[in-house]
């Protein structure tokens, strides 16, 4: 097969940032995706319905004419979040989900949750109204090895939370381990996971072997090869609980190429090409529509997009700019490290 047409994909985990960066990167997502779940980890974060409305307006204000793109807004859960504000934002259609960042787990997560018992009233309200909770699933304690933080989170935080609130609908974001895949596969209800493009393509060698490569550093950090293979199996299985969230997370190069580089990989430009490459390698191109276009809307209770996107396999590899320029500075584009022949037609 050298051509495949899909319902237009959606991105169920995306960082659009703000200001000049937002303006610089939005066109790349808006070209290939109809909708995206917009992460709220700005500085300051998107905490209230008022914040979400203002951020949504800023996104729409810089959306280039002719591109049809719907940002699905999220609220950043804090220990001061008001359950009534969350419920009203959901009822009005403004906000799709709430995002839980354990404080300190990732980029701009310092206002996140330290003590889960403090946000129980919000979570109870969400369970009652059927509003999904998106979770960055890593523990933060310094005595847990960074490669184990997802597995430990599942065991010590996620599983107890699901037992306490079985009606709460949870998206475990950017799952990176076989532990995560197994846990989601074994759940009876109300649990799904997003998988990023880069975690299907790279393992931790990309970051650490042959010199330290900050543009492959993200959180949760890429794990060993056996985990990547488990993610590939889940993504290409046709199980609707695993679907695409790119976690495209741009940072300007000076903030990545330094003594304490930021976590995040910018994949918005080449995600669809890379996914076609992965699914072809797994002899599963027939499962790509499910992963990128169908299972996400089903989970979030939205219709599948009626527009389509065609991917075409070329005889020569596709290339992308190594960097894009934004008003905030250059952003390095994800290099999949293998020749990719699929282009968006
Ligand atoms: N994934 C990342 O490495 N970084 C994200 C935050 C996140 O999704 O955890 C970012 O905002 O830069
Ligand atoms: Zn995250
Ligand atoms: Zn993210």
UniProtKB/TrEMBL annotation:
Pathway the protein takes part in: Pyrimidine metabolism; UMP biosynthesis via de novo pathway; (S)-dihydroorotate from bicarbonate: step 3/3
Sorted UniProt keywords: Hydrolase, Metal-binding, Pyrimidine biosynthesis, Zinc
Cofactor requirement: Zn(2+)
Family stated for the protein in its record: Belongs to the metallo-dependent hydrolases superfamily. DHOase family. Class II DHOase subfamily.
Catalytic residues as annotated in Swiss-Prot or TrEMBL: 247
One Pfam family per UniProt: Amidohydro_1
Stated role: Catalyzes the reversible cyclization of carbamoyl aspartate to dihydroorotate.
Subunit structure comment from the entry: Homodimer.
Catalytic activity from the UniProt record: (S)-dihydroorotate + H2O = N-carbamoyl-L-aspartate + H(+)
Catalytic EC class: hydrolase
Record gene name: pyrC
A biological process term (GO) from this entry: 'de novo' UMP biosynthetic process
Protein name in UniProt: Dihydroorotase
Binding locations of Zn(2+) 2: 99, 136, 174
Organism annotation: Hoeflea phototrophica (strain DSM 17068 / NCIMB 14078 / DFL-43)
Molecular function in Gene Ontology: dihydroorotase activity; zinc ion binding
């Amino acid at each position: 097969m050298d051509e495949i047409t899909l319902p237009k994909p959606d991105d169920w985990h995306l960082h659009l940032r703000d200001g000049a960066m937002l303006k610089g990167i939005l066109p790349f997502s808006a070209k290939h995706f109809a909708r995206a779940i917009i992460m709220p980890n700005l500085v300051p974060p998107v905490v209230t319905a008022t914040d979400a409305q203002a951020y949504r307006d800023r996104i729409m204000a810089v959306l280039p004419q002719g591109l049809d793109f719907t940002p699905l807004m999220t609220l950043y859960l804090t220990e001061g979040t008001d359950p009534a504000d969350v419920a009203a934002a959901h009822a009005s259609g403004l906000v799709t989900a709430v995002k839980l960042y354990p404080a300190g787990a990732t980029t701009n997560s310092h206002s996140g949750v330290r003590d889960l018992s403090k946000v129980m009233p919000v979570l109870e309200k969400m369970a009652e109204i059927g509003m999904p909770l998106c979770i960055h699933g890593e523990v933060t304690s310094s005595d847990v090895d960074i490669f184990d933080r997802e597995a430990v989170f599942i065991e010590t935080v996620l599983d107890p939370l699901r037992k306490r609130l079985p009606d709460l609908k949870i998206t475990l974001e950017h799952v990176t381990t076989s532990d995560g895949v197994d846990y989601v596969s074994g759940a009876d209800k109300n649990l799904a996971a997003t998988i990023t493009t880069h975690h299907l393509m790279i393992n931790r060698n990309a970051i650490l072997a042959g010199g330290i490569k900050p543009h492959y550093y993200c959180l949760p950090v890429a794990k060993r090869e056996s985990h990547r293979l488990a993610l590939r199996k889940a993504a290409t299985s046709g199980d609707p609980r695993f679907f695409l969230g790119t976690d495209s997370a741009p940072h300007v190069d000076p903030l990545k190429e330094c003594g304490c580089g930021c976590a995040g990989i910018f994949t918005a430009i080449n995600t669809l090409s890379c996914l076609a490459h992965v699914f072809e390698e797994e002899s599963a191109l027939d499962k790509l529509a499910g992963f990128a276009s169908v299972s996400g809307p089903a989970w979030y209770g939205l219709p599948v997009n009626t527009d389509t996107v065609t991917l075409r396999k070329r005889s020569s590899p596709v290339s992308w700019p190594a960097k894009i320029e934004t008003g905030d500075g250059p952003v390095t584009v994800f290099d999949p490290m293998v020749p990719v022949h699929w282009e968006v037609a």
